[in-house]
Amino acid sequence: MIVFRLICPDEHDFEGWFRSSADYDRQRKARRVLCPVCGSAKVKKGVMAPRINSGVAAEADRQQAASPGAAEVMGMLRDLRAHIEKHAENVGENLPEEARRIHYGEAKERPIYGQASADDRAELADEGIDVVAIPWVPRHDA
Ligand SMILES: [Zn+2]
Description:
3-stranded antiparallel sheet, 7 strands, 5 helices, alpha+beta, globular, binds zinc ion
């Protein structure tokens, strides 16, 4: 399973669970991905942790079982969090700014993660900055 943070034109922010990225694309094209608040089918992916994600998301795709239980999903999300914390730099609330600096070549290209509001994420997406939102679950030891 893979989780996308999705956003509709009215900026309702919600999570969608899909078997894979391709499954999301298919369902979205068929207008079956609907905003739970207003019912709009014009949803797009929200964004959060830039740069790390094509790799990380691909990994999550490969690891997906036919239909993992909630505990397995939580385990995968914990592993994902650990992976990100190990390999990426936490820029916290500077995420949108730092993502732009990297995108426009003003800062060294590297994996980063942090927090971004729905507005920030929409703006980054409009600028073509490749970022993905993931659910940030508690750690194993939390
Ligand atoms: Zn909506």
